[in-house]
Write a structure and sequence with these properties.
globular, five-stranded mixed beta sheet, Methylamine Dehydrogenase, Chain H, PQQ-like domain-containing protein, 2 helices, 448 residues, 2% helix
C-alpha cells in the first residue's frame, strides 16, 4: 500500500482572518510540521523520523542486522554511530550496538516523538502530557504536564523548551538538564499564538515565534527572553529583544545555530536573527515541503510548487543554506519529495519508495529502492551503513554491498536480546521527577 502524501494548496492574500489556522506542531531538534490555511504559502515539514529480536543478518548481501518490530508500535529511532535508541508507544530501549542493550524505560504514550541534540534525546507525547529526557546513561528527568504538549526542543546541554496548551491559553516552559523548571511564561494575549521555541546552547536565552492574528493579515513575530534571573532583572518579563515583524508571514519553526544566530523559517523566507538584528535572509520562491535544522551549521530545505507570482525553482529541488544564509549547494530530484532526514555526512531524500543518500555537496552516494513502506532511513556510524525502518522490521544495510534482496537466515543465528535494567531503578510510569514538577521558576505573561 503506497503512502499518501499531503495535498499541496495555496491561499491568496485576500484570505481573511476568519479562515481557520491549523497548527500541528512536531518539533525535531527544531523540526516543525506546520499545516496552515492562513497566508499565501505553506510549509510542510515532517518530523525526522516490541519485543526486540536481533538477527545477525547476512553481510555478504549487505544486510548487517535485522530488528523485528511490533506492527502498530509506532517505532522510531535516535542514532549515535553504532548506538541507538528504539522508542515505541510502550517505552524506550538504548543499545550500544545491535544485540547489546544497555537500558530500558517503560511508559505509555499515544504519539511518542523522538528528538535528539548532541548526546541528549527526548521523547514527547505530542498532544499528551509527558516528556522524558535521556542521555546514554538513561533517564535524566521526566516532565508531567497539566495541559497538552504542543511542541518541544532540546539544546546541546540537555535543556528543554516546550509549549503547553491549556484551556486558558499557552505556556512556555524551560527546564535545565536536571529537570528543574527555570522559566514559566504564560501566553494569554488574545489572537496571538506561540508556534515554536528553542533554547540557546549557552543556556542564557530562549526564543519564541508567534503568529499574530489580530489584523487582517497574519504577522510573524520572534521574541527573545533571558533564562536566568540575574540576566533579566532589568527587563520586563525577561524580554530583552524582538525581531522585526514579518507582515503576512507565518514563522513556523526556529532554531539556534552553532554560531548563536537564530534561524527562522516562514512561508516566504528564511531568516537569521542575532537578537533584534536580522543578519541574513533567503527569499523563498517555492513552497517549502520539508525543512531540517538537524545539522547546527546548515539549514536544508526541499522545495515544492512555485509560490504565486514567483518564477520559482524546479519542483523537487533541495537547497543547503550555510550558517550565514548563503545557498552552498543544491540538488534537483525531478520528483515530488516525500521524505527528508539530515545527518552529519549528508541527507537522505525520499521520492515515493526510492531513497537517495546525498552528500552535503549535492553529490549522490547511494540509492535504495524500498519494496515496502518505510518510515525512516538513518545513516549510522558511516554514511553507507543505514538503518531502514519499516512497519514490522528495521534493517541495518551496507549500501555499498546491498543487493536488494533480504536472504533467509537460519534460526540458530537469531539472537533474542534479554531485558536489561539500569543500575538504578527508573521512575515508574506516572511518577514525576521532583525537580521537574516542584522547582517552579517565575511565571510571566505577555503584555497586552
Amino acid at each position: 500500500m503506497e503512502k499518501q502524501t499531503p495535498k499541496k494548496f495555496h491561499f491568496t492574500k485576500q484570505m481573511k482572518i476568519g479562515l481557520a489556522v491549523v497548527l500541528v506542531l512536531c518539533i525535531g531538534c527544531g523540526l516543525v510540521y506546520l499545516d496552515t490555511a492562513y497566508g499565501s504559502g505553506k510549509i510542510r515539514s515532517l518530523f525526522v523520523k516490541s519485543s526486540v529480536t536481533q538477527n545477525a543478518g547476512n553481510a555478504s548481501a549487505g544486510v548487517l542486522a535485522e530488528i523485528p518490530l511490533d506492527a502498530g508500535s509506532s517505532a522510531s529511532f535516535a542514532v549515535f554511530d553504532e548506538a541507538f535508541l528504539l522508542c515505541t508507544k510502550d517505552g524506550a530501549k538504548y543499545y550500544n550496538s545491535v544485540g547489546d542493550q544497555k537500558w530500558n524505560d517503560t511508559f505509555n504514550m499515544t504519539t511518542p516523538t523522538v528528538i535528539q541534540e548532541g548526546s541528549f534525546m527526548a521523547v514527547g507525547d505530542l498532544g499528551g502530557k509527558n516528556v522524558r529526557v535521556y542521555d546514554e546513561s538513561g533517564l535524566l528527568y521526566n516532565v508531567q504536564l497539566e495541559g497538552n504538549l504542543s511542541q518541544f526542543a532540546l539544546n546541546q546541554n540537555g535543556y528543554l523548551s516546550l509549549l503547553e496548551k491549556k484551556d486558558s491559553g499557552y505556556e512556555v516552559k524551560i527546564y535545565n538538564s536536571k529537570g528543574t523548571l527555570l522559566k514559566g511564561r504564560v501566553e494569554e494575549t488574545a489572537g496571538v499564538y506561540p508556534i515554536s521555541t528553542d533554547v540557546s546552547d549557552d543556556n542564557k536565552s530562549f526564543a519564541v515565534s508567534y503568529v499574530d492574528t489580530t489584523d487582517v493579515y497574519p504577522i510573524g513575530r520572534v521574541l527573545f527572553f533571558y533564562v536566568n534571573p540575574e540576566d533579566s532583572e532589568n527587563y520586563t518579563d525577561s524580554l530583552y529583544a524582538s525581531a522585526a515583524d514579518k507582515a503576512d508571514e507565518i514563522i513556523g519553526t526556529i532554531s539556534y545555530r552553532s554560531n548563536g544566530v537564530l534561524a527562522a523559517v516562514s512561508d516566504k523566507g528564511v531568516y537569521g536573527f542575532k537578537d533584534s538584528e536580522e543578519v541574513w535572509s533567503y527569499h523563498l520562491t517555492n513552497v517549502v515541503d520539508y525543512v531540517s535544522f538537524q545539522q547546527k551549521d546548515r539549514v536544508v530545505l526541499t522545495l515544492g510548487d512555485a509560490l504565486p507570482g514567483e518564477e520559482g525553482k524546479e519542483e523537487g529541488t533541495v537547497c543547503w543554506l550555510s550558517s550565514n544564509g548563503a545557498e552552498e549547494a543544491s540538488y534537483v530530484s525531478g520528483k515530488d519529495i516525500t521524505y527528508l532526514s539530515v545527518w552529519k555526512d549528508g541527507i537522505v531524500l525520499g521520492t515515493d519508495h526510492t531513497y537517495i543518500g546525498i552528500r552535503h555537496t549535492g553529490r549522490e552516494a547511494w540509492t535504495y529502492q524500498a519494496t515496502q513502506d518505510v518510515t525512516d532511513v538513518i545513516p549510522m556510524e558511516s554514511f553507507s551503513h543505514v538503518l531502514v525502518v519499516g512497519q514490522d522490521m528495521a534493517r541495518i544495510l551496507d549500501m555499498d554491498k546491498y543487493t536488494g534482496k533480504v536472504p533467509d537466515v537460519p534460526e540458530d543465528l537469531v539472537e533474542t536480546t534479554p531485558e536489561v535494567q539500569t543500575d538504578e531503578p527508573l521512575p515508574a510510569e506516572g511518577e514525576t521527577n521532583t525537580d521537574a514538577t516542584q522547582e517552579d521558576g517565575s511565571q510571566e505573561g505577555t503584555e497586552g
